[in-house]
Amino acid sequence: MKRMSRGILMVACILSFVLASVLSPSVTVAAKAEKKAKGVKADSENAWAGKINDTFDIKKMSDMSGFDPATWVSPNGDTIKIAFINSFSGPAASVGELTFMPVMFAVHDINKRGGIWVDGKKKLIELIKYDHQSKMDVCKKVAERAVLQDKVHVLMGTSGAHLMKVISEVGNKYKVIVANTASPGDEMMSAENFGRYSFMTLASTEQIGRGMAYYYGQIRKKEKKFFILCQDYSFGRDIASGFKKGLKEFYPEAQIVGEDYHKLFLTDFAPFLEKIKASGAEVVWTGDWLPDSGNLLKQARQMNMNIPFANLYMNGANELNEVGVEGTKGLVHICYYDVAPFFKHPGSDKFYKAWNDQWKKWKTPPFNSATYEHLNEFLGGFALGPYWLFSVIERARSTDPEKIIKVWEGDTYQFANGRVLKMRACDHKAIQNLTVKEFVPPDEQKVSFTIPPYHWSSQRSAAGPAYNIPAPHILPLMDKNLDRCKGKSDWGE
User: Fold this and answer.
1) What are the backbone dihedrals phi and psi of residue 421, each rounded to the nearest 5 degrees, phi first?
2) pTM score of the predicted model
3) Domain range annotation of the chain
4) CA nearest to 432, candidates 475, 392, 376
5) Is residue 163 within 8 Å of residue 183, measured between CB atoms?
6) Hey, what CATH topology would domain 206-335+435-469 get?
7) Rounded Cα–Cα distance for residues 316 and 200 (Å)
8) Dihedrals φ, ψ of 235, to 5°?
């Protein structure tokens, strides 16, 4: 009798489990995903990512002593060829160098390890620089030269959504992997522009705008009057739209007291600053990048306007140093590299020092300037994409774009500082937490810079209190008109 009772109980348990699985598809999907996934389990901050397929192993990092961007030379020959396309001349020349440097650093690290095993042999990475001069026709010409003449395996770029779109079109036309590591425009992965060969590794504009709105509405809860001032092209308007959408979602009592857009590479911001002053705004939201972001801040302070700028790219150290401690105090910066706390993840301090220790030895401008002192914020952000790309190629064990796509779609990767990225399979956008930092004077920066010398800079205000914006609240915009995404949730499932 007891045996029968136990048997009945066992059958009941089995039936209950099966029934629960049928009635709850999410349980079945989760179980399958758990069985399929490999790697390590995400920590509580990144629980949304599930299993992490690959993580940066600080123990494998090369000895970076001797790395100098002024003298570094890329290998050539039978290599994995990466075309880095950006502006190295013209009004945005400084942006090209800024975005190129972290890629050079990552390539040097991987090559010192011996390269990557692909297509039956271990190969070094060759990094080839191409200058699009911030011109669309030149951009198309150099991208096609890279593919058709130089036979590159990957196209990587670039600041400027209009220019990144050109690079993506070339890559998708000729079936070459495109790594968008520097242009967060949402339209890149829209139904109209999406291509299987293009992947976005950074946060997208709408996600960034909503992230900043989340900070003001759900964390800070103080200022309520906002003015929007952005560059007058798709990126500027999209990042403004994301902020407005986020305020409605997370901070409905807030007001937009003014909104304006300016042409790229503007030299006189006075008319716009007068509008801001008259509006009664408590905060200005801007997505401006250099040189516009630096000029905007400098001119505002010259006009004795101490209003805080909430920003994405107003963090060029040279420009901030010119403004000084008081003029930079109160800036609020959102980024897709740093995490809070900054040096919590094991080995993150070692990775940081690998860059900073070398910077102290650099003698050649512009690399010896304050702009290149710290591998964080946008410099660190531009290192995320390359390391993730190299990890994917290594796991694909091939430069075949189809094999790379198979690994990268749905992939999860953890960077050296603990940041986790997940590639949404249907539209190739990265899901990730974002971080918002409040800029404070040097003697208050210890709260974030917890290793000697306990401040980011003695010449300017910099990151103090910092807050992670959880990915589930700010999932990147998905174009449901894209066939691959129809019927899927914002997680891509």
Assistant:
1) -125, 140
2) 0.88
3) 58-203+388-432+480-485, 206-335+435-469
4) 475
5) yes
6) Rossmann fold (3.40.50)
7) 23
8) -60, -50
The dihedrals phi and psi of 6, each to the nearest 5 degrees, come to: -65, -40
- Burial of 453 per CB tally in 10 Å (0-12, 13-18, 19+): exposed
Q: What is the CA radius of gyration of the chain?
A: 23
Residue 26's pLDDT is: 35
Predicted local confidence at residue 43, as pLDDT:
84
Is the confidence at residue 40, as pLDDT, over 90? Answer: no
For residue 84, give both structure tokens.
């880095």
Q: Per residue in 459-484, pLDDT tens? A: 999 999 999 999 999 999 999 999 99
Quick one: pLDDT band at residue 230, thresholds 50, 70, 90?
very high
- The yes-or-no answer to whether 58-203+388-432+480-485 and 206-335+435-469 have a common fold is yes
The hierarchical CATH code for the domain 58-203+388-432+480-485 is 3.40.50.2300
Q: Would you say residue 38 has pLDDT above 60?
A: no
pLDDT tens string 51-95:
999 999 999 999 999 999 999 999 999 999 999 999 999 888 888
Place of tokens 């600053």: 273
